[in-house]
Amino acid sequence: MEFLQPEDWSEALEARAEHPGALPLWGGTDVMVDLNFGRERPEAILDLTRVRDLSEWEERDGRLRIGAGVSYTRAITELGGALPGLAAASRTVGSPQIRNRGTIGGNLGSSSPAGDALPPLYASDAEIELASTRGTRRVPIGEFITGPKRNVLEPDELIAAFHVAPVSGPQQFSKVGTRNAMVIAVCSFALALHPDERRVGTCIGSAGPTPIVAADAEAFAASMLDWDGGAPPADADLARFGELVAAAASPIDDVRGSAAYRRHALGVLARRSLAWAWSER
Ligand SMILES: Cc1cc2nc3c(=O)[nH]c(=O)nc-3n(C[C@H](O)[C@H](O)[C@H](O)COP(=O)(O)OP(=O)(O)OC[C@H]3O[C@@H](n4cnc5c(N)ncnc54)[C@H](O)[C@@H]3O)c2cc1C
User: Fold this and answer.
1) Could you report the per-residue pLDDT of 75-128, keeping only the tens digit for each?
2) Which residues fall within 8 angstroms of residue 263, CB to CB, at 6 or more apart?
3) Ligand 1 centre distance from Cα of residue 51 (Å)
4) What is the pTM of this model?
5) Which ranges constitute the DSSP H helices of 131-258?
6) Which of 74, 131, 258, 261 sits CB 3.0–4.6 Å from 136 for a disulfide?
7) Atom of ligand 1 at shortest distance to CA of 114?
């Protein structure tokens, strides 16, 4: 197997264009598992870890641009204030070793419905920056992921970064697993309040072929919340929000949990997340 190791971004894009069958690699925490289990046999590996640009992030014109090679550990330590939902999700990923090595770009690349970084990015309307020698384009995250482990990345493209606005209100992330750590989500839920726009962002993880935005629940919460007075939502309204989130899910029965359990758990996570977030504002 050929091993390509570009030194900078333009070399990386050229290598990608010349070797569309090469498998990009950053932390390798998904790639190495797939290689070890024989699920992937690429003709070449495209190791991106020397491309320094990919591990940088910056704030410009009120938006954050975060390179695909930023690890979970750095999302927690460097971006926890600006992106508390993503940081909360990052804390639940794997172990310290996986969080040091694994990246949010890699989570996007894998496009698993159970990827923990994805729901907070949906709830905050992130855009994914894709690049090739032909140029760059930005795709809303909901259009980037098209199915289980499928996305719109062309064979000559790489994920350069994602763009997201820094926090404008409380954010929450909750995850149910079969144990407390080192666990793939049975289901998860991300919530972002945008009080300046009187808007609520949501996303369900691990209960459908892709992460799912609970649009009816968002609209209900936006109209029900007392944005001016700040009164806490009534229990019946929280329960209704939970029901609408549960109804938006599309779970299956599998080894990690039944569809019925996932729906029930999502209703509980949603109700609690909204109450916690509202009390933080
Ligand atoms: C023990 C263990 C525990 C784990 N726990 C969790 C968990 O709790 N939650 C969770 O969500 N995940 C978990 N994972 C999965 C994994 O750690 C994450 O998906 C991680 O984000 C992958 O990042 P990476 O940098 O290691 O990606 P890699 O393995 O290097 O790549 C992953 C995919 O993205 C592609 N890719 C990487 N970078 C780019 C790029 N710049 N452009 C285009 N494609 C790219 C690769 O080709 C590959 O398809 C776990 C894995 C292990 C081994």
Assistant:
1) 999 999 999 999 999 999 999 999 999 999 999 999 999 999 999 999 999 999
2) 207, 246, 249, 251
3) 17
4) 0.98
5) 141-144, 215-224, 235-248
6) 131
7) 11
